[in-house]
Design brief:
Blueprint (H helix, E strand, L loop, with lengths): L1 E5 L5 E5 L10 E11 L1 H5 L17 E8 L11 E4 L9 H4 L9 H6 L9 E5 L3 E3 L6 H4 L2 H14 L6 E5 L3 H12 L3 E6 L2 H9 L4 E4 L5 H8 L5 E6 L6 H11 E9 L14 H6 L3 E4 L5 E2 L2 E2 H10 L9 E6 L3 H9 L1 H4 L3 E5 L1
Parallel strand pairs: 8-9, 8-11, 9-10, 11-12, 12-13, 16-17
Antiparallel strand pairs: 1-2, 3-4, 3-6, 3-17, 4-5, 5-7, 14-15
Amino acid sequence: MKAARKTADGRFEITEVEEPQLAADDWVKARVRMAGICGTDLRHWEKAEEELHCCIMGHELAGEVVEVGPAVDRVAVGDRVLIESVLGCGHCEWCRVQQYNRCPDLYPTRRASVARAYAEYVVGPQHKFHPLPDSVGYDDASLLDTYAVALHAQHLSGLTIGARVAIIGAGPIGLGQLMLAKASGAKVMIVDKLPHALALAERLGADRIVHADEEDIEAAIRAMSDDRGADIVFECAGGTSMPDTLPLATRLVRRGGKVVIVGGFDDGPIAIPLEWQRIQMSEITLIPSASFAFHDIHAEQLEVLDLLTRGVLKTQQLITHRFPLDRINEAFETAQDRRRTQAIFVGLEV
């Protein structure tokens, strides 16, 4: 099959590799139709990382079932499916209670099967393949990993109706966070540096948009919250922005409020100075949020699929670019240079 593999310099090469095979009776093989490029993928772009050399990447995907094992009863050949790529080992204490996003072997496990979106075929256990309603396209479904991340963060936050919320970052996760918060009755301010992203946030219902380079962000949240600060701040930028955005989040939140850390970090120790005395004296809660799994008895991936089907979440407004897999390097360049390209969500048609 055709696949995009990581090169020694962190880009991609298109090559032929062996098709994956079903590893158990309850496994499924699907033909990938659409795969997204997310912030995690971009953090590895053009970085020389020996552990990823020759790997097939990508974890936001949807496709069509082409083969099933004899014990499969959830899907059938020909079904259009959302493919969930958060796959734990299945045996540890966390997996046993459906907290598989916390599995110690999460990344090695998922990269061996379902998190190989930049290729023609993927395989995995049947419980990670979710049938799509006719109204949901492959491109729509490829955004649902992102929205499930945002939903998991909202569940952790305890957000309730009427909350004053600030969101830092108007990429796909931040915009998903915005739609979910608005659907829950919150009043929402969103912060970014890119005018096209803020314009989209306004169209999606933001009560206040703030250009980080042109406005006083702290004054804006005080004006929206009776001078208290936000009840909840979602940090959705992550990456190289985190040394600036995490301290900002702690300044935007009110006393007794919550900061939810949604954006990702790079590997290894990272020193980010914070005003710890003020945080402690104000009893501000810092909540790390990692990917998604279950909320009570509900799979968060299926919850966002339901919300999309009911029109609560929007997708087409976010999909700004589509590329064939053969042009994956161009697609990554487009997603990386958002200011020039005005990209929001970039999809690869596999």
